[in-house]
């Protein structure tokens, strides 16, 4: 096998991860994330519905359909302000966006969330000081994470199509700013100053929905204190 073939084999397409908090929680708790924290559905973006989510929310995941209109609206440049402490993973593995979203939500909150020794903690520590491209390379070669992703992507109530136009992105707060972390893009997106992660993420997500108001395949999940 040539070097190029070997490299491409590391990018084998993963099965999509279902947008299901129960599966996500089993996935990350199995990898050592403290059960004090859990992913939970956000049933609506209006203030009264956001108030139902336990606080503090430390990350928000958005599942959305990829469209040319949204891609054009989300153009980014490398001139925006980005915190040096922000951890951003490039996605080079097809269908890995669910795991990339979970990584973004956890790696940027290790100050709040305890992660036991194991493959996830080792991955975060190993990639903390790397570039996004170098992190992507480490992910391509991480068989432990690939195995865990495969195991829990097969736990869904409904089989997610392997060729899907749905994609996960994550919203986190760092140094007082709201960032959108989408591994398909070259850079994080800085959405400006943020004092309330959940409310500010909801405003950004409403812009996604407004760009395609007839599309119903949006799903929002928050990472918050576990109430169970």
From TrEMBL:
Protein's GO biological process: protein deubiquitination; ubiquitin-dependent protein catabolic process
Cross-referenced Gene3D superfamilies: Peptidase C12, ubiquitin carboxyl-terminal hydrolase
Site, Transition state stabilizer: residue positions: 91
Domain of life according to the entry: Eukaryota
Key word Nucleotide-binding present: no
Substrates-to-products reaction catalysed: Thiol-dependent hydrolysis of ester, thioester, amide, peptide and isopeptide bonds formed by the C-terminal Gly of ubiquitin (a 76-residue protein attached to proteins as an intracellular targeting signal)
UniProt KW S-adenosyl-L-methionine keyword: no
Active-site residues, record numbering mapped to chain: 97, 167
Record-linked PROSITE patterns: UCH_1, UCH_DOMAIN
EC assignment: 3.4.19.12
Entry similarity comment: Belongs to the peptidase C12 family.
Protein name: Ubiquitin carboxyl-terminal hydrolase
Organism of this sequence: Ambispora leptoticha
């Amino acid at each position: 096998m040539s070097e190029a073939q070997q490299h491409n084999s590391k990018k084998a397409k993963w099965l999509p991860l279902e947008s299901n908090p129960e599966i996500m929680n089993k996935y990350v708790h199995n990898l050592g994330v403290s059960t004090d924290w859990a992913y939970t559905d956000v049933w609506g973006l209006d203030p009264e519905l956001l108030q139902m989510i336990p606080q503090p929310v430390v990350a928000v995941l958005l599942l959305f359909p990829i469209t040319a209109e949204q891609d054009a609206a989300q153009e980014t440049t490398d001139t925006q302000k980005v915190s040096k402490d922000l951890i951003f993973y490039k996605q080079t593995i097809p269908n890995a966006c669910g795991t990339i979203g979970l990584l973004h939500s956890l790696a940027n909150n290790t100050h709040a969330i305890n992660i036991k020794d194991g493959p996830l903690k080792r991955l975060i520590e190993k990639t903390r000081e790397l570039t996004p491209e170098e992190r992507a390379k480490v992910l391509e070669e991480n068989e432990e994470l690939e195995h865990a992703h495969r195991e829990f992507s097969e736990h869904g109530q409904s089989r997610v199509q392997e060729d899907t136009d749905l994609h996960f992105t994550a919203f986190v707060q760092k140094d007082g700013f709201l960032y959108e972390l989408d591994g398909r893009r070259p850079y994080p997106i800085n959405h400006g100053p943020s004092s309330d992660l959940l409310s500010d993420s909801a405003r950004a997500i409403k812009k996604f929905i407004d760009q395609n108001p007839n599309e119903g395949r949006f799903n929002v999940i928050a990472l918050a204190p576990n109430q169970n």
